Amino acid sequence: MSVKKLTLKKIFTQEPVGEIVLAQGWIRSVRNSKEFSFVVINDGTTQNNLQVIVNNNLENYEDISKLLTGACVGITGKLVASQGKGQSVELHAEKAVIYGGVPEDYPLQKKGTTLEFLRDIPHLRPRTNTFGAVFRIRHQLAQATHRFFSGEGYYYLNSPLITANDGEGAGEMFNVTTLNISKPDLLPKTKEGKTDFAKDFFGAPVNLTVTGQLEGEAFAMALGGIYTFGPTFRAENSNTPRHLSEFWMVEPEVAFFDLEDTADLATRYLKHMIGEVLNNCRDDLEFLQKFYKKDLIETLEHVHQAEFKRITYTEAIDILQKAKEAGEQFQFPCDWGSDLQTEHERFLTEKHFNLPVIVTDYPKSFKAFYMKQNADGKTVRAMDILVPGVGEIIGGSQREDDYQKLISAMKEKNIPEEGLEWYLNLRRFGSAPHSGFGLGFERAVMYMTGMTNIRDVIPFPRTPNNCK
Ligand code: 4AD
Ligand code: MG
Q1: Ligand 1 centre and the CA of 460: distance in Å?
Q2: CATH number of the domain that residue 362 is part of
Q3: Which of 51, 81, 189, 343 is deepest in the core (most CB within 10 A)?
Q4: CATH number for the domain including 26?
């Protein structure tokens, strides 16, 4: 009889009862009785473990029965319907190969390990149930992203990671250089005594990108609609549970879209992702619900159907002021003109609406230079989408498509035209209304998994003072 080499996911979906199967994975537990050992393995392809029954007449039974949690094995045997509760099938071992044993100091013992502890062993934490669930859901969200935007008719664009632009104009860039900065005395100098970047690798100062938006706009004004999906880098010194120095962003940009079209697109996209996770990641959601967020599935199901709230910034300020008068305590001011702080965002989305909220038309003073100016002269066509538990998950806007207005906004914000001539030229050469947004991919993973620290939804988190 031929041996079927199957992942656990395939074993549980195909359930080839009666066939000879080779299952491989890492041991979760070994329980020895008189005649048998019950060896529970998991290969990471699914939340479900496979129970293997090893008879003591197996040639290397001694070695198998002594294996510890974390050892890696390959077991060939007959797959049979299980009598036991909690699993549909089990494997009756006929041959067991030990790929790699573990010493007793293997850090992932059965007893509950904290997420903080696991952050110190980022190379091993994917072997836990929690991280297996999170990263399988992360995968699902990535696939759902491509399916969604491709289905909408937009093209996947790879914007550059090394760029000379500061796309947000916030100065939070990581420089990229081949100059030997460890020897400042030897750096090439200009006549004025400054570092001469003309002698650097690219002949100019460049940095890691903070956004793919600007390049995305050039392609949207050519292909109609695009989306980028890649890493972005921000050297902002915010050590919060929602900020990373390297994070992934999904940035669609669509020609002929106004802000309402973009808000509709973002709503459909979020709902699409929720639907895909609900349909394809049940076991993982149930696990996360049990251990991390008691109403995870219910909330996702509710939001999948619900209408997202839409309010202007001015209306948001109104709600916050009224709440303050009614006794709500805020640490930061919430007067018209001040930026919404996390506490305000959380109040709106968690307490006031208990739903995702789309806030539009913010004051231009604290929004990026490229946003379309409203006729009131004070606000811009910006939108932020806030969700309970995470806060801002999406930031977007209609873009300023008027050449002169864009130039004056850049002047007001002290953004030099030099280096952005090409961007301005998009407004000189067949300008078109267009809009887009950026979804913080890790924040989306947080929302769908119920994880409360962004460091736990990216494989190897990069944060200030931490690049393990
Ligand atoms: O609001 P942001 O800064 O918007 C942009 O970058 C625009 N260029 C997007 C666009 O219109 N194409 O960032 C977008 C999203 C935020 O809403 C947030 O979810 C996430 O990116 N984000 C971060 N996620 C993790 N760590 C950080 N440091 C983040 N900064 C922003
Ligand atoms: Mg933002």
Answers
A1: 19
A2: 3.30.930.10
A3: 51
A4: 2.40.50.140
Give yes or no for residue 72 having a pLDDT over 70.
yes
Beta-sheet pairing, 89-100 with 72-81 = antiparallel
CB 276 within 8 A of CB 141: yes
Q: Is the pTM of this model over 0.85?
A: yes
Which one, of 405, 411, 410, 409, lies nearest residue 428 by Cα?
405
437 lines ligand 1 (CB under 6 A): yes
Counting the structural domains of the chain, the total is 2
Express each pLDDT in 259-294 by its tens digit. 999 999 999 999 999 999 999 999 999 999 999 999
Whether ligand 1 lies within 6 angstroms of the CB of 26 is answered as no
pLDDT category at 256 given cuts 50, 70, 90 is: very high
Distance 442 CA to ligand 2 centre (A): 14
Packing angle, helices 441-449 and 259-280, rounded to 10: 50
**Other CB atoms closer than 10 Å to residue 461's CB: what's the count?**
20
Host domain of residue 265: 127-153+260-456
The dihedrals phi and psi of 217, each to the nearest 5 degrees, come to -65, -40
Measured distance CA(140)–CA(71) in Å, rounded: 28
**375-391 confidence digits (pLDDT tens):** 999 999 999 999 999 99
Q: Are the C-beta atoms of residues 110 and 69 closer than 8 Å to each other?
A: yes
CB atoms within 10 A of CB 192: 6
CA of 230 to the centre of ligand 1 (A): 12
Residue nearest to atom 3 of ligand 1 (CA): 395
